Amino acid sequence: MALDRLLNVARKEFSDHITSRRFVIILVLFLVISAIGMHTGIGYYNDMLESYNQQLQYMQELEVDSPYVNWMPEKPSIMLIFNSMMSYMTTLGGILAIAIGFDLVSKEKETRSLKTLLSHPLYRDEIINGKALGGVGALGFAMVLALAISLAMLLLFSIVPTLEEFAAILIFGAVSLGFLLAYFSIALMMSTVARESGNALIYTLVIFFAVSSLLPLLGTVAADVLVGDPPEPPEVGLIPTIVGRSVSATAGGGYFVSSASQSVVQVGSEDQVWREYEEELRNYIDKRMLISDLTTLISPQMNYYTIAMAVTNPQITATIDALYNSGMAPEETPGLAEALGRVWMNIAALIVFPSVFFAVTYVKFMRMDIR
Amino acid sequence: MIQAENLTKVYNGKAVVDGLDLEVDEGDIFGFLGPNGAGKSTTILMLTGMIEPTSGRCLVDGIEVAKDPLRVKEIIGYLPEDVGFYGNMTAEQNLDYFARFYGMDSRERKERIAELLELVHLDGVTQKAGEYSRGMKQRLGLAQALINDPKVLFLDEPTANLDPEGVREYRKLVEHLADEGKTIFVSSHILSEVREVCRTVGLLAKGKLVAQGTLEEVARALAPSDGDAVRIIVETPERLPAIEDPGILSIERNGSRAVILAMADIRDRLAESLYSQGVHIREMHLEEPDIEDVFMAAYRR
Q: Are B80 and A20 within 8 A, CB to CB?
């Protein structure tokens, strides 16, 4: 494979994307809505900052022997502002990625330009890799624009990110790009498999809705079917003990909501029945969590939310993780690296997902009948 | 310049091209004839390195196509049937995109593109290729096939979308290119088109090469055989008298006209016999097979 030939294809594809009306319209819509989301996020951040300043002032007024004297309020991170971008990314961003990829190959089949192209000295893999590279470049361009506008808005509102926050913004951009690639790869594969662009779009949208809406629902149903109902508590004397924890995360309307809860039961200290119940309940929760985690790993949306949450709000991720493992909320907010370390499986899944679809696309394109 | 040895392509268990042996000399204008679905386009795709043969091999300028398709593509030009382009780009942009694959520098590309657009009368056209008529696309297709100044040119149904003026210009261009020493391989199902421009032809039917040579050679080879017998047409102003000759196999009479099937060319003896009987001869000739009919019959076989 010669780099110059691959880059020639990629250059043309990139140029086609960024000058296409379809791309420009969706991109502008995406940027405008992101900017509005950012504006809302900045308002929320400023409220949090004001609350923080009030708490600081309150702390300074506390007497030395007060029991709260050593407690320090936590300064809000500007990454909270980016929370609002997450849901726009999964809707408009996903649509942008699909719009770029769904007719990349099928249109060439329809207009018969693929045959013309293949008559010139280049290999098929150079064409498909060039197309993928051009698409990734266009999505990267969209992402850079979105982040640039976000940064500009931060500076406009006199919010200057620290070095770590700046790194987090870049990582957020990279993770968002990874999410867009997941849908781009599905669209590209469908474009290669389907004979017509219309069919490719329909197939892609079916998968889009399946993994974004159906899969989480199926996860819950699968958990109900496979794990069954929770064990019934015995009807005897009780002592309160924490035995299980459950976590959940949902997103919608520009906000990501996480919750962590502990299952508290009353156990009779002398009664063995309660210990057995405790064990059964723990197993029940563990199984549900396992099924939930597996479902999450297949869904690019859920992986994206999980990773983006770790970047924009590491405290929540750490709390969920700690509650699940130790039952105790962490005292300190983890660093960016630590937060990302906690979601490594989701990061791996977000990389593997598009890789699988790209691989299928590659094989299919190499074997395509061009008569 | 072009060779195919036992070239075979099988799709879904069916041989679309079946053991094709073919040879085209350098500088020839070769017409590849055959009805739709005979396997012409599949053969061209194999010769141009776009699909691999199931078995057999083909060579262009001594290079085995399946082993080194890129080297072959560098020396050939190909005009596909119903050629397609990038509709969002102008003719110049389309050609520039293709020209980059040949490592041509910017100045070289610009000069070559201007030259080709003038050649196919698309210079000064600012429309995007998506707005082109089929004829314009066909002319642009010819330009893209010539972008690398190829040694060998493959043209698949080249006049399919051209108007009469376009066809006339295409014929002139093909002659001109052949005079430059290029080998031209024209695939078509239109005999009249091939007859106009091609020096030699090959007839493909059901994936097999039925005959190859000059048009006359092929027609003769394909004509229905009467052994060594010949058909002589005789027409006189008067009613034909009885004709006796040991060489005559049969006579079909129709007033003053007769079709005589003879063991050999006995026209001299027939003329003498009729003259001796006082009959004037208006016309007497050997019946040559009609090329159109011969090819049509071969298509149907």
A: no
Helix ranges restricted to H, A210-335 = 215-227, 272-298, 300-312, 314-325
CA-to-CA dists, residue B45 to A369, B17, B153, angstroms: 11, 11, 13
| Beta strand pairing call for B152-156 and B76-79 | parallel
Burial of B174 (0-12, 13-18, 19+ CB in 10 A): buried
Ranges of each domain in chain A: 1-64+73-231+274-367
Picking from A115, A124, A127, A365 by the largest number of B CB atoms within 10 A of its own CB, the best residue to mutate is: A115
pLDDT string in tens for chain A (371-residue length): 588 899 999 999 999 999 999 889 988 988 888 888 888 888 888 888 888 888 878 777 766 666 666 666 677 777 778 877 787 788 888 888 999 999 999 999 999 999 999 999 999 999 999 999 999 999 999 999 988 998 898 888 888 888 888 888 899 999 999 999 999 999 999 999 998 899 999 999 998 888 877 887 887 788 888 877 787 877 665 555 554 444 444 444 334 444 444 455 554 455 677 788 888 888 888 888 788 778 878 888 888 888 888 888 777 666 666 666 655 555 666 677 877 888 888 899 989 999 999 999 999 999 888 87
Cα A83 to Cα A305: distance, rounded to the nearest angstrom: 9
Q: What is the pLDDT of residues B202-247, one digit of tens each?
A: 988 888 888 888 887 887 777 666 556 788 899 988 888 888 888 8
Q: Taking a C-beta distance cutoff of 8 angstroms, is the pair A111, B85 a contact? A: yes
Pairing type for strands B283-286 and B230-235 reads: antiparallel
Shortest alpha-carbon distance between residue A260 and chain B (Å): 53
Give the one of B50, B73, B77 whose C-beta lies nearest to A370's C-beta: B50
> What letter represents residue A213's amino acid?
S
Helical axes A314-325 vs A300-312, angle rounded to 10°: 110
pTM: 0.79
